[in-house]
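Sample intake sheet
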Amino acid sequence: LAPSTRQVDVPRGVLRERANIRRSDGQHVAAFVGDQPQIWLPPDGETSYPVVDRSIASNENARGFLNALRLSEPDIVDEVLERILPGYQRDQPDPADYASDLARIALALVAAKDRRRGQLMQQLRETTFLLGRNAANGERYWLRPGDIYEPTEQLEAYLDGNPDGWLLCEECAAQSESWETLGLAKDIRVTRREPDAFGFVTVNSSHGFHQRGRDRFDPALDIDQLEWALQNVTLERSLAIWRVLAAHDVALQGTLETSKRQDYSGARTEDHRVSHAGEMILNDAWLLRSDGQ
């Protein structure tokens, strides 16, 4: 690779398509084939893209020549979407360098903006690229971020022995804050509809049929893995359930209004309706007495 002491534009079809640039593996390639780049400038971290030998790219004169060819660093979002994630969309992923892949994915989440970030996050949420261990037998599986919990002390105790419980493996822990944006949970998941400013929870809103809960009541309230926890109650699980109820200030039972009109005039009310989670919490024995029973 001949050095250049000044910035010049290299005409298309001359040096751009001649195999005169040394890759990091020692092979010489052309910068472009037509309009398609064949090599990139090396980024600060690792990359799966073929890049210019770093010793050459760091040379000031050589860098001028590479810039004149209009070479650029790899787009990290493209790299994740096109090169990294496809390897985890197979039935049996076998990443050559898992730690590097996770670092690149986390970096892409920081770098991506606007529409590209949304596209990246959607793809990541749907891809089984994280390792989770089963809370019952310790077996490890490839899972989506939204299928896994962080292995906190409380969650370890809540899920211990549960065959449907999954905890993040140690290999993935360094970027756990990034995985939280994709659905990894550090608290017990609670599924409910949010009330409006007046405390009404919309259950149904369609032509001729409107239904809502009063005073933050949602009949579909659900607490993840609650049924198993109540069937296998321990002091730790009992405390975990209590903390969830206190933290979310949830109404386990309440009043449901049904009307043909959107303004709820002439609404029919049903008192003492119990939510899905409330049925289990109110009917199962899970609070310990002072004698430990």
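Comment: The mean pLDDT is 89. The two ends are 79 Å apart (CA to CA).
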